[in-house]
Amino acid sequence: MNIGMSDQESDDDRPQLSSDTMNALLEFYKEQDEREQKLQEIQGGCVPDNFDENWNLSQFWYADDTANLLAKECLRVAGDEGAIACISSPTLYKTLHSVEKKCKVHLFEYDTRFAVYKDDFTFYDYKSPLDIPRDFRETFDVIVADPPYLSDECLTKTAVTVKFVAKPNAKIIICTGAVMENLAHRLCGVKKSNFVIRHANQLSNPFVCFANYDIDATCKYS
Prior knowledge:
The chain is of the alpha/beta class. It is built from six helices and seven strands. It has helices spanning 7-13, 19-43, 64-78, 90-98, 152-165, 181-188, and strands at residues 83-87, 104-109, 121-123, 140-145, 166-177, 191-197, 207-211. Strands 3-2-1-4-5-7-6 form a seven-stranded mixed β-sheet. Helix 3 (64-78) crosses helix 4 and helix 5 (152-165) packs parallel to helix 6. The longest helix is centred in the N-terminal third of the chain and has 25 residues, at 19-43. The radius of gyration is 23 Å and the shape is globular.
């Protein structure tokens, strides 16, 4: 004799999600759909208002006041006829791109989402520091580099790129952790400034600007 359960009994025995878990799940799928939609817009050539940080790529965006001050400083130093290179610094590039200017600005970046900026974008992997077009040799008057990782290897290889694209008298700004001070000085001749990098999401390690000129005279928070 077969003894079966009714449909109602079977449904009652199934594990039920709590309302909090269900809401969290629905929110996750909503965010996933929004990310996919934004990616499709980027692939279609539409520049979004903002890009989400990808922590897997060690991305930590600058706070608005930091990005605005750095952009203003770069434009001041470069002048109307100059050229600015943003190496692994998409937040700064995005800010520079949004303001009226006459100088040229170029982004060297690993995150291909920023290819939406077309001719202003060059794919860049710090692990292959010279794997960029030869035309960029000694091209830029101002270089701002933000190595994605706090490691000797990352800073050393980024410095190779900085030296390759920099004009002989270029102004160089390195944004990285204070612990990299000695290596940054040896590699690029930069000194620690008083200008602290503020991030939109607070980081525990202090990040500062190292420069080969006196950046403190003009780049300061109000």
